[in-house]
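Protocol step 4 of 6.
Sequence for TetR family transcriptional regulator (Streptomyces variegatus) entered exactly as in the expression construct, tag removed. Do not edit the line below.
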Amino acid sequence: MSTAQGARARARTEVTAAIKDEARRQLAAEGAARLSLRAVARELGMVSSALYRYFPSRDDLLTALITDAYDSLGGSAEAAHEAAAGGLFERWIAVCEAVRSWALEHPHEYALIYGTPVPGYTAPDTTVPAAARVGLLLIGIAREAHRGPGLARPALPADLRPEAERMVADFAPDVPPEVVTALVAAWAQLYGLVSFELFGQFNRMVEDRAAFFRHAVGQLARGVGLVPGPA
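Step 5 output, structure tokens:
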């Protein structure tokens, strides 16, 4: 790459980052539904036509912000997983607590990906790999337990087995069907716990939220079949 090409690439990276930063500021101030390319351009001192060379539409900018948010969340969860001391049960707790910590530190970005859908916007399939990072971590923990120390498999109603086997084939190979259904339920409940705290549903109800959360996600781990290690 020539010096001129490198300078152009760096400039484009810097402008793209500035656009995203201003868009995140607007998310915090106005909400995703009111995000406007014209307003972003105005705040950055750009003409709209220049900004469109980076993001042709509001939806393209939203998609970039959503992917960045999922990747940031996934990166935090993966780092916690790698740093966790103890066994698989403890790794599960660490991943869940990293999700909560990230959400509390990035409430507007969390609301963008797990809050009210943006009217008129549908996230494209390109966001799926980033969105799947936390779920794949939890699946991986269950798979490792199944291959190693074992899982206390939950019960599975007969009428749910075909759906459970489909899920195994679709996104959780080598994980028992009984465990996959429990994993999907735990994944949904994890974000329910975080959303209740972040959006004020625990106000005047739960005071020691960190302790409550740790207990609750430990129950989710047990429901999946993970067994705590020695104290």
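Step 6, annotate. Residues 159 and 165 are 11 Å apart (CA to CA).
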